[in-house]
Amino acid sequence: MSGPQAPTGRIIRADGLAHRFAGTATLFQGLSFVLSPGDVLGVCGPSGCGKSTLLSILAGWERPAVGTLTMTGIERTGCVFQNPYGVPRRSAIDHVAFPLLTKGLSRRTAEARARETMALFGLTDVEDRPFRALSGGEAQRLMLARAVTSAPDLLLVDEPTAQLDIRTAHTVNATLGGIAASGAIVVIATHDPDTRAACTRVIDMPDYAPATEAVAS
Fold it and tell me: CB 3.0-4.6 Å disulfide test: which of 28, 146, 152, 202 passes with 76?
């Protein structure tokens, strides 16, 4: 029987993925999917079920123990971690403009585009604030804005709304959907039901846990 079909172009295909770390139980097995531009995939489940591990495999930092992962047309991958990191003394706008400066844009153009993206994440009022002075939620949104500014083909996000209030979380979820609609593939690891509802597709990781091995909650 043939595998799932997908249109030609930018495609991510996973076939029979399974993974375990040395000396530990298998996290997941038999995981197959195909992703194309416009998809917002929610990778859902409790802590310990392999959500972040799957993101690491998609990022190329881990190799699956079993199965194959094929990426076609994916040249730029953006990653946003659950715990934001930045340069303490650099301003918020410097963080977002940096990817554009590395592409050769002038500072004036880079900052103008950075402001547009920061506005999407409600960061207009903190653009001149140093990273160390941002709240946890502001820092999380800043990392999202920086990743979006680099125009990735694939955007991987780990728990994007964990430090956000409900209203801001709704805005972030809608913005991530807009990024996918513009031609990116977005994969979000989350246990937030609102973020799950905002995804176009969902993988429940506990469904892929081996029947004989319990997943930690």
Answer: 152
The candidate with the shortest Cα–Cα distance to 26, out of 60, 50, 55, is 50
Query: Domains, the chain, ranges and CATH?
Result: 7-76+152-217 (3.40.50.300), 88-150 (no CATH)
Looking from the CA of 27 toward its CB, the CA atoms found within 13 Å total 24
The pTM score is 0.85
Concatenated DSSP letters of 41-100:
EEEE-STTSSHHHHHHHHHTSS--SEEEEEEES---EEEE-SS----TTSBHHHHHHHHH
DSSP state of 125: G
Q: Are strands 66-72 and 11-19 parallel, antiparallel or unpaired?
A: antiparallel
